[in-house]
Amino acid sequence: MEVRLSWEEVRCGAQHGLERGLTALKRGWSPRHGGVEDRFRNHILGAVGEIAVAKGLDLYWSGVVGPDVTDVGWLYEVRSTMMQNPKLTIYESDMRNPGQGVVLAQTINFQDWRMLGWKNVVDCMEDRFLDRRLVGEKRQWLIPVEELEEMSELVTGVPDPEVLRSLDQLRAGDE
């Protein structure tokens, strides 16, 4: 799936990403990877990528950030990248919402995006995907693009109430 954003959409995401970066800096949060100089680029890239995925899936993008809030629609997180040969990165903290899907979005210029695929968090936590370079740090899993589900298989409609109940039960088990 390919999506082209207007420059107004890119500007909206860039401004939102800048605010995210400033908030993180103000609160003293350290980046997951990279230095402070990467913080703003990563937040901007992430916010613009969320807008691209929302537009491509015709879903709502709220721009709200938080541990219990999804990036797009009712159940999807987005990982945005400019890497030529990316992998979907899943963090240990993603297990807060194990039933959610994570979409990998790639861009070269912030306006043109490709959705490379998606995967449910629980399906990513396999040993074969574990990043073994991070000794003593929080774990992360790296999923190759060829292991991702096709975007056409992503459910974008109104959530089934039974699915929402089971997700609530999964979340309650983590508390």
Write the layout of secondary structure elements.
Blueprint: E1 2-4, H1 7-27, H2 36-57, E2 76-81, E3 87-91, E4 101-107, E5 112-120, E6 140-144, H3 161-174
Helix pairs in contact: 1-2
- Derived from helix and strand composition plus strand pairing, the structural class reads alpha+beta
CATH topological fold name: PvuII Endonuclease, Chain A
Q: Runs with pLDDT <50, length 5+?
A: none
User: Biggest sheet: strands, sense, closure?
Assistant: 4 strands, mixed
Output mean pLDDT: 84
Q: State the end-to-end distance.
A: 37 Å
* Overall 3D shape: globular
Treating each run of at least 4 consecutive H or I residues as one helix, how many helices?
A: 3
What do you see in this structure?
- By secondary structure, this protein is an alpha+beta fold.
- The chain has a single domain, classed as PvuII Endonuclease, Chain A (3-Layer(aba) Sandwich).
- 33% of the residues lie in helices and 20% in strands.
- The chain has helices spanning 7-27, 36-57, 161-174, and strands at residues 2-4, 76-81, 87-91, 101-107, 112-120, 140-144.
- It has a 4-stranded mixed β-sheet, covered by helices on one side. A two-stranded antiparallel sheet has the order 3-6.
- The longest helix has 22 residues, at 36-57.
- It is globular.
In brief:
By secondary structure, this protein is α+β, with helices and mostly antiparallel strands. The chain has three helices and six strands, in the order βααβββββα. The chain has a single domain, classed as PvuII Endonuclease, Chain A (3-Layer(aba) Sandwich).
